[in-house]
Design a protein that fits this description.
The chain has about 270 residues and is an alpha/beta fold. The chain has two domains: about 180 residues, Response regulator (Rossmann fold); about 70 residues, Arc Repressor Mutant, subunit A, CATH 1.10.10. It contains twelve helices and seven strands. The strands form two sheets. A five-stranded parallel beta sheet has the order 3-2-4-5-6, sandwiched between helices. A two-stranded antiparallel ribbon has the order 1-7. Strand 2, helix 2 and strand 3 form a beta-alpha-beta unit. Helix 11 packs across helix 12. The longest helix has 17 residues. The protein is globular and about 55 Å long. About 40% of the residues are buried.
Length: about 270
């Protein structure tokens, strides 16, 4: 039994709903496939979302935030995959599985996605991940190949974008960060030009980059660092230029890979 399964403490049953079937399309900011709606499905109204999160605090916080900011989302919380499957919740429009870096290995996440897919054949499944490996294209593709219709890395995704992705997947789409999937796969160590990129960043730029890696918005970074939002934007543009990135997502991805490469080489704690 995983740590998440051991922390299960709730069993709630949602109301009945309907689920989408298959048609192709695109969505801004992410890889997308769209499916046509079944005759009895609803495009508007309440969206019943099963939230699986083994950590009680984050589960309660996310549930409250979604219910408050987006009343159209009816959140049904579960403490584990086993609890969700055992509840037999046939009325869910979508299942949101939150994978935490400290409690779920990649193989366990893929196993859980497969178990959910087998139990909820027609219900879209999305993976919400705060794992460091969530920015790696291989892990995103593995999750999608295991049966998920969506993958959201929390470190680079704002709440509004996550909710938009939920709606899109509920309507039959498949969502993933397109910027990450299009990023060229790297070898075990990054090119010397990339490895030296962060060494050319100023201390202030390094601080801004660290906040970007935490998924913080420009306004939050400006507040925490005591600078204007326009100054933050200037720092981000300079960071992107020095790292050879075309957008902030790619800059975060490259810095993450450099950090992991340093870890593997024993250069960081």
């Amino acid at each position: 039994m995983s740590k998440c399964d051991a922390l299960a403490d709730q069993n709630v049953h949602p109301s009945d709903g309907s689920n989408p079937q298959s048609e192709r399309g695109t969505a801004s900011g992410g890889l997308a496939e769209r499916s046509p709606q079944s005759p009895g499905s609803k495009n508007h109204g309440v969206i019943s979302v099963g939230l699986i999160d083994c950590l009680r605090f984050s589960r309660d916080c996310l549930t409250q935030a979604l219910r408050t900011l987006h009343p159209e989302l009816s959140i049904v919380p579960f403490g584990s995959v086993a609890e969700c499957i055992g509840a037999g919740t046939a009325g869910l429009h979508l299942i949101l599985y939150y994978s935490h870096s400290e409690s779920s290995s990649e193989m366990l996440v893929l196993q859980h996605v497969k178990e959910l897919r087998q139990s909820f054949v027609d219900t879209p499944i999305m993976v919400l991940s705060d794992a460091r490996t969530a920015l790696q294209p291989r892990n995103i593709r593995n999750a999608l190949n295991s049966g998920a219709q969506g993958f959201i890395p929390t470190s680079i995704t704002e709440m509004s974008a996550a909710v938009a992705a939920i709606r899109f997947v509920k309507d039959g789409g498949t969502f993933a960060p397109l910027d990450l999937l299009l990023t060229q796969r790297t070898t075990s160590s990054p090119p010397a030009s990339e490895a030296s990129a962060t060494r050319h960043l100023t201390p202030r730029q390094m601080t801004v980059l660290s906040h970007l890696r935490q998924g913080k918005a420009n306004k939050i970074i400006a507040y925490e660092l005591g600078m204007t939002e326009s100054t933050v934007k200037v720092h981000i543009r300079n960071i992107m230029r020095k790292m050879g990135a075309t957008n902030r997502t790619q800059a975060v991805y490259k810095s993450q890979q450099l950090h992991e490469s340093a870890d593997n080489a024993g250069l960081t704690e």
